[in-house]
UniProtKB/TrEMBL annotation:
Keywords: Cell membrane, Membrane, Transmembrane, Transmembrane helix, Transport. The chain crosses the membrane at residues 9-30, 42-64, 76-93, 99-117, 138-155, 161-178, 199-216, 236-254, 266-286, 292-315, 327-351, 357-378. It is found in: Cell membrane. It comes from Mesobacillus zeae. GO terms for molecular function: cytidine transmembrane transporter activity; uridine transmembrane transporter activity. It is a multi-pass membrane protein. The lineage of its organism: Bacteria, Bacillati, Bacillota, Bacilli, Bacillales. This is MFS transporter. Coiled coil: none annotated. Residues 8-382 form the Major facilitator superfamily (MFS) profile domain. Pfam families: MFS_1_like. One of its GO terms (cellular component) is plasma membrane. Its main location: membrane.
Amino acid sequence: MKQQDKRTLYLLQGFYLFAFFGFGSLAPLLSVYLSEVEKLNGYQIGTLLSIGPVITIFFQPLWGMVADLKNAHNRVLTITTALAGIFGLGYLIFGQYYWLLFVAVMTGVFQSAIIPLSDSISLKFSGKARINYGNIRLFGSLGFGLAVFVMGRLSEWNPQAIFYAFFITLILAAIISLRFPRENSSGSTKMLGGMKELLGIKQFVVFMFVTFLVFGPNLANNFYFGLFLEDRGGTYTGIGIAFLIAVLSEIPFMRAAGFLINRIGLLQVAAIGGLVSLLRWSFYFTQPDLSIIYISSVVQGFSLGLFIPAGLQYVKQVTPVAVTATAVTIYSAIGNGLGNWFFTFVGGMIFEVYSIYSIYLFFAVMTSAGVLLTLWLIKKEKEDVKAGKEVLAQHIASK
């Protein structure tokens, strides 16, 4: 590998490490903070937690178009990352619900740009340097896992520490992003025109439903897993340990995903990830012992560690090269935005009326639908391959 490529690789890995450390400082422990410190009810917590994903639906494509239009991906990423960290400090300043709602909105607006812009830069670099994207993205899992472990312990001393960590690490990530390789503009009109073309690709549209149904509950779990562990008798430190096990377990599976994809196929790997998630949510609904929950946390790596790289590569496979960037943006908005919002918001209502365990029953039912759709896509893929072989055979025979 060239020296310049090595330097860029380390910068990208460093960005993911610090950015996801910030995410991991806030997301898993925010629900507990709002419940115990701010004394908010289930509806209020669900609304605050779901604001970010809702904003993501609308602002992720917008940030992408702004970056393309100005040919300033690095600059936009730097500014939005820094502002997200600054607005996150608002949770320390304001205590009233509606002010907290304002803070959640502003933080979400700028945070929504971080993942798609950094992914866009990373995917282009990994393709150019012939590096596995998973070897960059796994540093995000590492940062997230370290954050929930460290901040889980610090939160027992001072619950407000999660906001200071969110601010500091995002500022560091913003500084690192200043040194990223420049990404050429693809043109905003190309992105808007590509959306219509993508809607005509049946496999892409169906897989967006799969992403919504499988990835959405996994992201919403980041908010409710802390309450789930607390209800089972866990402490802040225990929540941190469980998240550390869950998130760090993604790393070896992300590294192994490429091998499995080559052996059995993209959709098959995605189906396995979805099935493992289904089993996990069903298990949590049974109210298992705390010690077993800690041990079972490793299955998150099995599910997300496989689904994330397989899903992204499948989207690139079934879409034309000219609209790949648009496809990835929509894929991110559906999973990180719409799916995250829906399951987080509905989860808050279920938590208020029923219990934390009912949330996981809801997750299990919806994930099962996602697995069934994936199996349909696998069947459709096999039928298309068979039909293609028959056409080829007829063409050869005609000659």
